[in-house]
Every structure is written in C-alpha cells, then in structure tokens.
Design goal:
Helix content is 4%, strand content 44%. The chain has helices at residues 2-7, 21-29; strands at 42-49, 60-65, 71-75, 78-82, 88-91, 102-107, 114-118, 121-126, 129-133, 145-151, 154-159, 162-167, 172-176, 188-193, 198-202, 206-211, 216-220, 242-248, 251-256, 259-263, 268-271, 283-289, 292-297, 300-304, 309-314, 320-325, 331-336, 345-350, 354-359, 362-369, 378-380. The two termini are 36 Å apart.
Length: 404
Amino acid sequence: MKATARLAILGSSLATMLMPTACALHAAAEPALTTTDLPFPLIERFENFTERDGIPGHKVHAVLKGGDGRLWVGTYEGLCVRQPDGKFKRFGPEDGLSHKLVLCLAEDSRTGDLWVGTARGLNRFSGGQFTTYTQTDSGLPNNVVYGVAVVGDTVWAATAAGTGAYHTRSGTWKIYDQNNSIMHEPWCYAIAPAKDVLYIGVWGGGIVEHNPATGSFKEYRDPDGDFQFVLTPDSGPVSDITAWLAWEDGLLWQGTYFGLSRYDGSRWRTWVETKSPLVSNFINFVATRRTVAWVGTDRGVSVTDGNDWVNYLLGSHREGILEIHRPSHPVERRVLQTALVNAFVLGIWVDDREAWFATSDGLSRGILSRKNPDAPVAQLGRSASHPGRGNNIPKTKSYEYTHP
C-alpha cells in the first residue's frame, strides 16, 4: 500500500475567480507588496514542457540541473536530458538504464557522474555509460530507490528495505535497517547530508540521524505519536510519516503527509495548513536555497523562510494564482499570466535564477525575478470570505500567524 500511495500520483487543482468589489476596495486602501519586501524572489513567469515537447512520459518524478548546466529529468517512461537546442534526449532500458521508472536523481559534484534511482535498482551514468546496481547483483538493500545522495566517496540510497551506503573506492556496500540501527522500520524515503551527519527519512519512523565517523544513531520522532493530528506543535517532527528531507545552512526541513517541520539543531518548528499559510499538508518534496524551503505538495508550491510565505496555485481554469502571506499583513492574491503545468508537484530544483518543477503531468520552469510580476488583484484579510460573483476563489484560511 505504501508503494501504491507513493507512486500512484494524480494531479489536483485549486479553484479561483475574480475578486469581489469589497476586496478590490480593500486592495486600494493597502499598498501592494513588492518582491523587494520578501527575503526571496518571486516567479515572474512559468514555461511548461510536456510530451508534446519531447518529455518521454507525462509523469515527471525528479528534476536536477547538473554542474555543467545540463537539465536531467526523471519520468515514468525513462531518464532524459535537455540538450542545448532545447530538445530532450531520452535514455531507457535499451540504453542500459535498469528500469524506465525514474524516482530520484543526484550528482557527484566532483566527477559529474549522475546517480539515478529507479523502481528496479540504482544507476551510475558516467562517460555516457550506465552501471547498474540491484539487490541481486550488489549490496543494494532493495531495488526500489526513493532517494539518493553523494557524500564524498560514498553514495547513499534510501530504499524500501533500508538505506545502503556504497563506497565507490572499495566497491563495497553497507546496509542500515532495523536490525543494525535504531530505525523503527526499514522503509526509507530520503537522504539529507548535513555538515557532519546524515539524516535518513523513514516512512512511519520519523528521522534518523547517523554519524558515519562514529557510527552513532539518533532518532527524532513525532512526540505526540499521532499520525493525523499535531497535538504538541513545535516540539519535534510534525509526523513520523517522512516523505522528504532537505538540509542547508544549518536547517533541516522535513516534508510529511501531515505537514512541514524545521529543525535548527536545538529548536523545532512545525506548520500545518489549518494554522499556517502552508498550501497543503500532503508534501511530496522539499528543496532548499540557503534558508528558504521550496515545498512541493499535492495542491501547489509553498515557498518560505518560516516567516514569510508565497504560494503558487492553479485556479479552476488552470490560471496561475500567487499568494503572499506576511505576518501582520493581509494576504495578497494575484492572478498570473502563466501557471504551473500541474499542481501535484513531485520534485523541485532551484537556484537564484530559476526553479524547475517535476509534476504528475509535465515539467515546469519558473523564471525568478526581483521585479513585481503582474499587478496585484487584491489583498485579503486573514479571515476574509469572498461572497459575490461566483464561488471559485476558496476562502482565505484563518489561522494564528506567529513568528518563528
């Protein structure tokens, strides 16, 4: 059931409409925020790519831009790379890839080698050739590889039956599971390398911290033990159902199916959609850019530093909706001229100029800008409802907005 829930992915959308007159008057009374008020840039426009543009499959699970500038895309129908002319070149089993269903990607920044996790093994793409590692011909714990990361000479693979560490110099493997670590169970979804330790995301087992130098393990679990409700916010992981992990600049971000968590080494912060601007509790992926998290969910993307938030949504007519949430400010909503290709976001890659989104129905590129994209449609009070012309704009969420 877990694999089915993870892989059987369907898109979803949020509804939207024109703002009522009362809201428009409220917008006139409040000056519009500009992107310079935010600690991160906004997306100026989206460019979308589907099967019509050469993507081999409509379901895109992973996206990664390499150090050489090449864009790698993992899909339901194979791996592909975007060439200088903008066309996509596909690699499949006929080219040596162990399986056409690509789940995750990582690059060795020292060598430029690409590591590809699939539904049937781990692959190394080097010098135009694939080398495959499966559970029957290597020390890979399980063929289903959900996450992969490269740390020095070691490649870490999060699989459905534990985490594997492949030492590239010696060619040897070591497996970590419930038998030789403190993992509650072996179903691992993500690997997040940190400064001196490694974080392993465990489905139903929270987060496991491992120090390879000392061999020690430490566990972080949901303190209230409830999968569906956050009874003790800001006291630990929001849930034990870890879907993804990301670490950068001293901050560990945990995406779960029940909300978002952040850990700075001493303090936890948690966010759920009913009590924060988080667009959805169902999180598939988290990418980081310094202290900012880009959160891919089943209903769009949330971008946050834990204080300010920007959401990218899809309207009922597939128009792009941008929401800006700031403490002590009304929510600002804008209708964009372009939009995500699909709201069910499975993977993200971002730098200071662009963001790429893998979705359940295509690939999107977001062009980042410090300029103010499009005119604001309205600014809405945190508890405002939207009666009037139609009912396509969902009500603005009401929550107690606190600083981190």
